[in-house]
# Entry
Amino acid sequence: MKTDHIPLSRSLFDRIAAQGLDARAILQQAMLPPELVTQARATLTTAQYFALWRAIEAASDDPALGLRIGAATLSEISDVASMAALHSANLGDALQKLARYKRLTCPEDISVENEGGVAAISFRWMLAEGHAPPLLIDAIFASMLALAQRGVGERVVPRRVELTRRTQHTGMYSYHFGGEVRFNAGQDRLVFDQGDLARPFLSYSEDRLATLMPSLESALREQNESLTLHDQVRHVLARGMRGEPQRMAEIASVLQLSPRTLQRRLSEMGTSYQDVLNQVRRDTARHLLDATDLDTGEIAFLLGFEELNSFTRAFRQWEGQTPQRWRRPVGD
# Structure
């Protein structure tokens, strides 16, 4: 069974204070104990963690706050997954280690996909209801870029940043990341050129990796055994919501199962492949309608529907109204 525990680093409160914010007041706003500021090994659930980041955002009118907090991790490595990444041979190896081991430290799934000369990194919170606060997305991307620059020893410029939100503060994001910024994206992704993946890390340490890797692999095997098939299917489907129909045979292949075995095992759990697909499509549709200016045809495409009418019918079954009506603010 997955554990919904996210370690709360005390250095986060130091970074908050460095921005002139009152950490105790922010915790109260998030309905969390102010004593967490001084607690040595505090953990939060995903819902509490999201509430904390929403409270941080509400406490400041600085649009660059998430970027500042994330970039401040340049001198801090607080978890074993990031430590393994920092001691990797190059940027590509570091990203793969983050993707493989990050969920050992918190219920966060990182995916690295190589496509068309680029490597795209996306994040998904496995136990979240709803999507991560935009400020947290900013901090994660800035933190990952800071780790890459610390490892390489010089500036690293991503090919682009893709954000699932309406266009805002374009110049700020372009200045921080140095590359193209795409808003109204189907997923939040940080994209590097394939050539950058070979850039060597000055912090590479074969000895440190030899110490870290056996325990990381052992912990990963234990965790994989605890994941339900339903969770695994959800994760694979959520990663693939980018415009291609996701057929059961393809998902089964990723999970190293036959389609018949996949359907049988899901049936034993009281669900089906189509049920899980509908759940992921519904969650993704609600988020894209709420957070972006993508039109319904574009959203239908990202969800893998071949026709807009099919998406509209499905959404009406889920929500009792059309996508256009669901998105429209009350009173319009």
Summary: The domain at 6-198 is CATH 3.90.1520 (H-NOX domain). The chain has a mean pLDDT of 91. The chain has two domains: 6-198, 229-327.
